[in-house]
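Honest question from a wet-lab person: if I give you the sequences of every part of a complex, can you actually get the arrangement of the whole thing, not just the pieces? Trying it with mine:
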Amino acid sequence: MTSIPNWIVFILVNGLALYSSSCLAGYLLRRNTQASLALVASGIIYFVHLTLVVLVLGVIVSKLNVVTVSGLNVLVSLTLINYFRRYCQSFWRPIKSFFCSLIAQRDIFTLLVIFLFIVQALILLLKVVWLPPHVWDVFNYHLSPAVEWYQLEKIPAVIDSPVGRINGATLGITVLSYWFFIFFRDDFLVELPSLLWALMLVPVSYALLRQSSVSQSWSMKFAIVIFFLPIVLMQAVTVKDHLGLNVSFVAGLLFLVAYLMRKDRCFLFVAAMALGLSLGYKIAAPIHVLVAALMFVILLYMQDKQQFLDKLQRIALVKNILIAFVVSFSIGGYWYVKNLIVYGRLHGAYGLKEVSATAAPLQENSQAVGAFEAVVSKASDVDFFVANIKNFLPRVFDYQGYYGTDLVHISGFGPQFSAFGLAAILMVFAALFNKRLRTQPIFLLGATGVILFTVYMVLNFNVNSYRILSFMPMIMIVYAGVMLHQGGLLKEKISGITINVMLLVSIVWCLIQIMPPQYTNLQRLKEFVSMDSAYRTSATFTKWFSVHRPTFYQLLHAFPAQEPIAYISKRGKNFPREVMEDTWSYPYYDRNWRRKLTYVRQPDYLDCNKQHVCTVKPELKKLLSEKRVALLSSCKVNRCLKILDSEFFEMAPGFYYFRAANK
Amino acid sequence: MSAIKRNALLLLMLLPLAAYFIVNDFKIDEAVRQFQAVQSGEAASKASIFIDDELVISKRFAASEIFDAKSQRQVVMLAVTAKQFEKLSINKNRVSVRVAENSTSVQVLSGGKLLVAELPVVRLFIVRDGDKGTLAGFYWQQQKSKKNIVECVGDKLCNAIRISSRDWTNVEGPYLDTDLNVNKSGLPRGRWVFGPKTVIKIEALRAAKVAVLVTMLGAVADQTISFSGAVTGVRTSVKNTAAVELGDKRFYPKKNIVELQLQRGVNELVIEYSTWRKSTGNEATGLAAFITAVKIKEI
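Yes, you can. This is the full assembly:
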């Protein structure tokens, strides 16, 4: 699958998309001279480009495959290049001059930090390519829809799965995973979108710092220390959506800050694109966008009340904001519209008792509450806020557990947040009492960060709740960098050296601590990476369930990848401590996504006693015979039901062969 | 900003940073352990299949957690293309399989649908890709014929007795040395028993004098065991033989032959342990031993 023609198509299509995106970015920012802003805008437009191509083909045209994806992309790219080619700018020249100046100044420290960044980026790339997708929720709702889209060649409104989240989540990151799968029909690059977002964080943070006139080398060092946040490094090699959500959000803030500085409406539209992407990444994203928009309007008012009082200026502003909203919604709004149409609520099938392939019975279950009502009803939850406040320092100091992408009881904010982020929070509060500081455009960053963090303190408290909060260290370390620059600490020799050492120590700590891969048996890592690629799947990689790990994961690769598997699942628990809603579907797939899954709703097809021994209803045999499915798994997650039936042969606990299927 | 304010701000940043490293120093040990674990691993085994001296197939596969019916060798299934399988089948007498330094010929099973190579550590099965029926039948047979730790010698006796216990866990294992569960890694097939005692019930349809060989891995050092119930004598008692390392745990093998006078009805064999493991972490409470075989024979 990873043949040379596939590589050629991949490089050609993505190269064209990148080039055309940089042309459009050059056009939108034609009155701006800062290369870092243009670089970020190019990245944002590139992601928008890929997202819209897949959505248009999958949802509207219903013809989603490598030919249509490549064809439409080339068409759009060539059109953009035709119109905007003269605005294209080279990023090589500013990067080269930046490095030349570092070498001329003999800025060893910055060069060392950049070297460590390159090393870390290569390690992450190796992890993406060599290690298969993992992490709990990736297995049940992040990646499984992309497999279904690939097999169906379209993006259906509803996927026949008992996992409510699959049919409620905004799957923007899954769209990108699909993009990076389709050229090779191999899942070795499906985690690349998260890595690209992590890498985007460097120019985004750099540009934010440069907006406030922080020197190039200090901007680069702070940008890289943000990239090294444990939460970023860990999420960069997953297909989870938090990183895309928060980096696109911070990129949106960057262009809002740029707008506050220069009042060029083109910045507003690029910000809208970035925030539109974030809307498509997480069902909670509207909260991010609302807080950012609110703070933006407040700061705009504080800066220049006149434009709100003057009718013409006010109309122009409202018009621009409305256009920005339309741009945002066009990019990330599909998932909400679909949820409204199919389920009558913004968050789709989240929390529904049962999910079916057809919408009709679902609407009977759906409650008349939308996401907004859910948020409002939660907003009065004082308990969450108190618990979060009590837990704040233990979480941000990361000492309640080991580093892991699920961030159990920790924040993953790393030492850099303890050093710079905590101080930055105090600086934000101090800025409230200083008019000069609170009317600075960069205050939008600090204020939005603190308010959004506070909102989440009220809305959400669980052992994993800091996974979505990575915007906080990103924003706060940038804010700290700007404030340290304005306070003169970066220029003064002793404090400059001290801050350099703090940055370096934080980077080295994170580099070493996050290097070993997670969720696998490290004693068998050498074996895993040296196996034939067909065996290197999520099923063989994952170390979840050291106590009750079903043996059948070992058997999966022996059966042909085209052989479908029926998978018994339900929304309730079969065993104590089993998760309620989730099921584990992704490990059943081969890395080329050829295997098909048939979801079997347990209550409809099995009668089980309290000892978890089940008899088969005739409907199950009929279903399997009709669909010609011979393999059946009774393991919802890691514990398996025992099936007693003379026609079902147990090959491993929970894994059965139904002989009559092929008669 | 004044120098005092600058220094205060620096201190405000330095102190939390120092605090972060102090409270997270335990992660350094964990990082070292992780790097050592990676280093201690071995590359995947390579199976090379030859016809005479011509290399036909080469595959790198993982150690298998599935063992053969005797719980001695790992079962590894290699699916090859129909064309390759046909070539191997036609030339079966000239086929040799090499894994590591070991080489062997192949046997034909299941009416020619499976080729098997018996190697010291693995039983390598070669099957045609897509032949799910043969695979399913093979795995079903493996599952059915898994060895129980209770073995009875002689039909006359075996038809007249039934052995059970409520004091031991389900049969489990064997496990690879690299199994993630440190309490199980490296263990053979067997059942865990707990302190202070294990009662094994032997239901007999007739009276008989029997010898019972109990083989176990003691879980703690300096553990003595005693037998009671229908016992008429303990012929051999090997106490605390040389310890063995299984996974990263130390076990103390014991073998005892116990003579019992069974009466018609329910008879008890009680094994009492002088000491057992104290509960640590998520380990089950009071593990005393891992029984690997109970062999009963009429004398």
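Two things worth pointing out. The CA atoms of residues 71 and 239 of chain B lie 26 Å apart. Residues 3-23 of chain B form the longest helix (21 residues).
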